[in-house]
Amino acid sequence: MPNPFKNLAWDDFRLVKAIADARGMPGASDRLGINQSTVFRRLGQIEAALGSTLFERHRTGYALTPMGEEMVALARRLDSEITAFTRKIVGQEIAPEGELLVTTADTLLVHLLTPLLAKFQAAYPRMRLEVVLANQALNLSKRDADIAIRAADNPPENLVGRRVAKIAWALYGRASDFLKSSRIDRARLVERRWVSPGENLLDLKAVRYVQQHVPRERNVYRVNTVLGLAEAVEAGIGIGHLPCFVADARPKLIRLAPLEPEFADDLWLLTHRDLRQSARVRALLDFLAAEIAKMKSLIEGTKPVGGRPSLSAEA
Question: Which CATH number describes the domain made up of 4-91?
Answer without folding.
Answer: 1.10.10.10
